[in-house]
Amino acid sequence: MNIFIHEIKANFKSLVIWSAIIGLLILIAVSKFSAFAGDPETLKILDTMPKPLLDAFNMQAFNLTTVSGFYGLMFVYFTIMGAIAAAMWGSGIISKEERDKTVEFSLVLPVSRNRVVTAKALAALVNCIAMVLITWGISIVAVQSYAPDGKFYSFLVMEMIAMFIIEMIFLAVGLLLGCAMKQFKRSGSLAVAIILVTYFMYVLIGMENDFDFLKYFTPFKYFDAVALFNTGRMEPLYLALSAVIVVGCVAGAYWTYNRRDLYI
Amino acid sequence: MNINIFRYEFRARRKSVLIWGGSLAALILLFFSIFPGFAGQAALVDELMKKFPPALLEAFGMSRLNMASVTGFYSIIFLFAQICLAIQAGNYGFGLVSIEEAEWTADFLLTKPASRVQILTSKLLAAFASLTLTNLVIWISTFLAIALFSDGREVDMNAVILMLLSVMIFQLFFLCVGLVISLIVKRIRSVTPYSLGLGFGAYILSAFSGIFGDVALEYITPFKQIDPAYIAEHGSFNTPLLLLNIGITVISLAASYWLYLRRDIKAAV
User: Fold this and answer.
1) pLDDT digit string, tens, across residues A163-209
2) Residue B269 falls inside a structural domain
3) How many structural domains is chain B composed of?
4) Domain span at A113
5) How far apart, in whole angstroms, are the C-alpha atoms of residue B233 and residue B239?
6) Per the structure, how many domains does chain A have?
7) Of B45, B67, B212, Cβ closest to residue A32
């Protein structure tokens, strides 16, 4: 419990900064949206555009003049920010002890290594939940002036759940890296590499159908904003895949941390 | 300029340069390898796009993308290379002097018979040399990719070379801005969150203004100041924005020297 509280306090500033960035993003985007809101001219032209073109620019079938369509377009940016923050928290929260040379201190406390990992993982989890809630709250406030309908709110809930699951995946991967890497510096670099590679895969899939098989490897493709909007539910296959990744990485984190030699 | 510090700093980044350079070369070659198949489809799309009113295409940032041309396609790849470059240069900038303080070696370094100006200059030059090596990799892999995959299509070499020339300006921006931020904040414990936040934040801002066609934001993000799509279309830089970019770099650099010379260095007790 003490470790948990300590970590929450230590990560508070980082949470504030990430939330401020995402809040700024939403405010800027919503202010730009005012140019499109309810403008039938834009809608008419978008309707006549060929589908491959819309696909290439990731504007599939969204009605940009409604708040929902606009938020569908924003989805991928939310998830990128969430994924980066979660991966950084996950990989940092374990490995920073070795960087700051405090790891011997925390491990001589009368708690098992399992409990150290649990407390730290929970603290990072709380941060992720807080980030999603803040994104959600700011979104609801920011779009008030466009009088969104009921469907928007349920769509927003779906988006936020999807964002949360993606955060979970990157948090779990980050935790595993933090526990498994012998050198603390590597966990951060590898987390960067994973984020970049998965994001580039996401882009590549959008550009060329031949790379469709990559969709299982990039969490950014697990939740498609269009499908979320149209069907209102997530694909069970990807939910299961996400669960497997999260459980597998967390189990791996515990397993490696218990066998870990400390580098100090 | 102190040759020992330079050599030490340059060697410390050798592995990092190898990894970034290798990944960038792979990125460029892999993305370019889909060009021949892509160009056929894209030509159809480009035909269709000509029918839409230019004002609307402009609003969606599509007017400039001619994906069936080698340069148009390369400008997309180049954007992704820019994200990597931003993070790499940001890493070096944020870590340039802050790592010494995080690892408690700053006081050791400062007892050496070298002035702070010399130290900062040597470190900056070493980081710049590492970035230039990466830059070189991009030049080589770009020409290689064009030679291998351009499918016999005409290439606007002028625009490609302008993009490649912009790499150095782009790197220096993130190096200097990262450095000045690391000197403004009290202490940086870990470099990656900062450089990722700066790099991706700037990229997402520019992606927004691409989708929603606003102008106000173009001025602050280097991804717009040096926009590959703009270069591909016009065959020239957007000069005022480029000058703004260089201006920010120069101001950050000057401020870094000013701050570093006056910095209170925390030492391990």
Assistant:
1) 999 999 999 999 999 999 888 788 888 999 999 999 988 888 877 77
2) no
3) 1
4) 2-258
5) 14
6) 1
7) B212
Is A6 domain-assigned?
yes
Sign of the alpha-carbon dihedral angle for B250, A21, B202, A34: negative
Q: Quick check: helix, strand or coil at residue A64? A: coil
Q: The pTM is what?
A: 0.88
- Classify residue A193: in a domain, yes or no: yes
ipTM of the complex in this document: 0.83
- B189/A96 Cβ within 8 A: yes
* Cα distance between residue A144 and residue A153, in whole Å: 11
Q: Do A92 and B83 touch (CB under 8 A)?
A: no
- The residue of A60, A71, A181, A207 whose CB has the most chain B CBs within 10 angstroms, and thus the best one to mutate to test that interface, is A207
Are B258 and B183 in contact, with CB atoms under 8 Å apart? no
Residue A250 has a CB neighbour count (10 Å cut-off) of 21
- Rounded distance between C-alpha atoms, residue A202 and residue A220, angstroms: 6
- pLDDT of B229 reads 82
Considering only the beta carbons, identify the residue of A29, A53, A100 that sits closest to B49.
Answer: A53
Domain containing B209: what range? Answer: 3-261
Task: Read off the pLDDT of residues A230-240 as tens digits, 9 standing for 90 and up.
Answer: 777 888 999 99
The answer as to whether B242 is a domain residue is yes
- Torsion, Cα B132 B138 B140 B145, to 10 degrees, reads 180
DSSP chain B: --HHHHHHHHHHTHHHHHHHHHHHHHHHHHHHHTHHHHHHHHHHHHHHHTTS-HHHHHHTT-TT--TTSHHHHHHHHHHHHHHHHHHHHHHHHHHHHHHHHHTT-HHHHHTSSS-HHHHHHHHHHHHHHHHHHHHHHHHHHHHHHHHHHSTT----HHHHHHHHHHHHHHHHHHHHHHHHHHHHSS--S-HHHHHHHHHHHHHHHHHHHHHH--SGGGGT-HHHHT-HHHHHHHSS--HHHHHHHHHHHHHHHHHHHHHHHT-------
Contacts of A18 in chain B (CB under 8 A): 197
Are B231 and B68 a contacting pair, CB within 8 Å? Answer: no
Whether A264 is in a domain gets the answer no
Q: Give residue-wise pLDDT tens across range A49-102.
A: 555 555 555 554 566 667 787 788 788 888 999 999 999 999 999 888 888 888
